[in-house]
Design a protein that fits this description.
Layout lengths: L9 E4 L26 H9 L17 H7 L4 E4 L7 H18 L3 E7 H12 L4 H4 L15 H4 L2 H13 L7 E6 L6 H17 L10 H13 L8 H18 L13 H18 L6 H9 L1
Parallel strand pairs: 1-2, 1-3, 3-4
Helix pairs in contact: 3-7, 4-8, 9-10, 9-11, 10-11, 11-12
């Protein structure tokens, strides 16, 4: 792509689950055998499928992806799912499709299913000269690997290929920008080490009164030990109340329309989404109403 190419859209990595639901309450007797008939969907697939010739990300002969490109057409958002988190061939193919969309169709943002904070922190470090592929996996915490990007991308040879591609494109005229949509509070290595210090630094830089609040230390304790790491999965109700109180104050300060760089870590709007994600993750752990899907949708937007 020439440097003058207009940026046009984003690629979304997400997990696809297929669920078969059976009816209940029927007779316990054995049904009479029936002759199976091919579902019309299967017939349609057989008649219309265009096979790929390769799933190898290093294969840059994209002629077999013409039908895929025609289906994408002028879309600005393309979602690439997978049937499970363990198929190396699928993850190879996803990287090949990412390369095709970036190089041939002009897409410029890759949104991963991973923590909003942790992925933006990785991207920030990459802009400072580190490799995404290196910082995506942090050192083990207490002997347990706590990657900063979802394990299926950062801890498998097939998943890491897309991170290595991002690294290869980072200093070109048309980089592939890394972002994410998942709620924060996943136990990522850089969440454990960086999230609260960076949040406090940001709040102090804008002379916020929140770090001086009587509940601030409670908020930090609950966020680190109950939300991010689950070291203390069942905090007292008074501590949960303190966590909620600071969460509400953070939302009131960070989320209204205001001057915003929209660049991590100096963006109130991005910190607004991070603290909403922490609140959602904590509430889910404590049996309160689940809001993770709405948080992810807001993160994506």
């Amino acid at each position: 792509m020439p440097a003058s190419t207009v940026r046009r859209g984003c690629i979304v990595f997400s997990f696809l689950s297929l669920v078969a639901c059976s009816g209940g309450g029927g007779s316990s007797s054995t049904p009479a055998p029936v002759t199976p008939t091919e579902a019309p969907e299967i017939t349609w697939v057989k008649q219309n499928a265009q096979p790929f010739s390769s799933s190898d990300p290093s294969d840059t002969d994209y002629s077999d992806l013409a039908a895929f490109g025609n289906a994408v057409a002028n879309a600005r958002i393309v979602a690439l799912a997978e049937p499970d988190h363990g198929s190396g061939t699928v993850f190879n193919m996803k990287t090949r499709l990412v390369k095709y969309l970036h190089e041939q169709k002009g897409f410029d943002v890759l949104i991963m299913e991973s923590s909003l904070f942790s992925t933006n922190r990785v991207w920030q470090q990459s802009l400072a000269g580190q490799n995404v592929d290196d910082v995506a996996v942090g050192p083990p915490v207490s002997g347990v690997s706590q990657p900063s990007i979802f394990f299926m991308y950062s801890m498998s040879s097939q998943g890491r290929k897309v991170l290595q591609y991002i690294d290869a494109q980072r200093t070109t005229a048309h980089p592939l920008i890394l972002s994410s949509m998942g709620p924060s509070g996943t136990g990522a290595y850089n969440e454990i080490n960086d999230l609260l210090p960076m949040l406090e630094t940001f709040l102090n830089s804008r002379s916020s009164s929140i770090p001086a609040s009587s509940d601030w230390n409670t908020y930090k304790d609950v966020t680190l030990n109950s939300v991010i790491t689950s070291q203390n999965p069942n905090p007292s109700q008074s501590n949960i109340n303190g966590f909620h109180s600071i969460s509400d104050q953070l939302v009131s300060e960070l989320c209204p329309a205001q001057a915003d760089t929209h660049v991590f870590p100096d963006s109130p709007g991005l910190w607004c989404l991070v603290v909403k994600g922490l609140r959602s993750t904590g509430d889910t752990k404590w049996g309160l109403p689940y809001t993770g899907e709405q948080v992810a949708a807001d993160n994506f937007k």
